[in-house]
Amino acid sequence: MGRLEGKVAIVTGAGSGFGAGISTAFAAEGCRVLVCDINEVGGKATAKTNPLLLSFHKMDVTKAVDWKATMDMAMQQFGKVDILVNNAGTSYRNKQTVEVTEEEFQKTFDVNVKGVYLGCNAWIPQAIDRKEGGVIINIASVGATRPRPGLVWYNASKGAVWNATKGLASEYGPHQIRVNSICPLVTGTGLFSHFTGMEDTPENRQKFIFNVPMGRIGEVDDVSSACVFMASSEAKFITGVNLEVDGGRCI
Ligand SMILES: NC(=O)c1ccc[n+]([C@@H]2O[C@H](COP(=O)([O-])OP(=O)(O)OC[C@H]3O[C@@H](n4cnc5c(N)ncnc54)[C@H](O)[C@@H]3O)[C@@H](O)[C@H]2O)c1
């Protein structure tokens, strides 16, 4: 029996990187997943890895109307949604903060913060109505608490997610809704070049391990395994936690 057998999840940004890994890891534990992404090609590719349990839904996390359609589709298809993973994220390319344009700032906050706000607003009412609790997992970042030069407003957006995770956990705990964040270290996903300002090559990855006690950058399954744990009943009394999955980088 899988650790998420009988559960239903929405995973955003599931057409690539962590979101794709989280979706396939959830399905491997018996969870049905609505694979959500603005990128149709990536989202469909994720869904194809397990057509029995994964189905793709195109949506933009920054649009309330898309969230309504997503919840409508999930309720119609599955009758409930136990787990919401707010994973979709974006960043401008690492650079001097005074060079970040207003458009880049706005997009970063729209996807990384407004997307989580809209997702929670869309998902929470049905979780309260069902009276069976539920789980929200937000993908934040090590930069939420240990920011470094060049990604100031990206890290600030993750700081907002870090803080909202605790606020949501305290507000919805009485409904048995657990809210936690995972804070990953830099990982070789689609965003690697934006975060580091370098191409994703084995040589460039080596440049980011000097301050990581465990001596490597992140891997997608470091994060997907942590998400399976957080979503499962093994974490049933854990809420309001921002879990660093970073080989010790934040120590
Ligand atoms: N990779 C890292 O080093 C790292 C480290 C810490 C945190 N994160 C966070 O992990 C999360 C996943 O990113 P990733 O590293 O897998 O990058 P990625 O680029 O591989 O995946 C991000 C996905 O989000 C989707 N997306 C972007 N804007 C969207 C929107 N408006 N609506 C719907 N989908 C949208 C993209 O199409 C893409 O498929 C992000 O929140 C990111 O900030 C990544």
UniProtKB/TrEMBL annotation:
Superkingdom to which the source organism belongs: Eukaryota
GO-annotated molecular function: oxidoreductase activity
UniProt keyword list: NADP, Oxidoreductase
Stored Pfam families: adh_short_C2
Record-linked NCBIfam families: PRK07231.1
Family named by the database record: Belongs to the short-chain dehydrogenases/reductases (SDR) family.
Official protein name in the record: 3-ketoacyl-reductase-like protein
Gene source species: Lojkania enalia
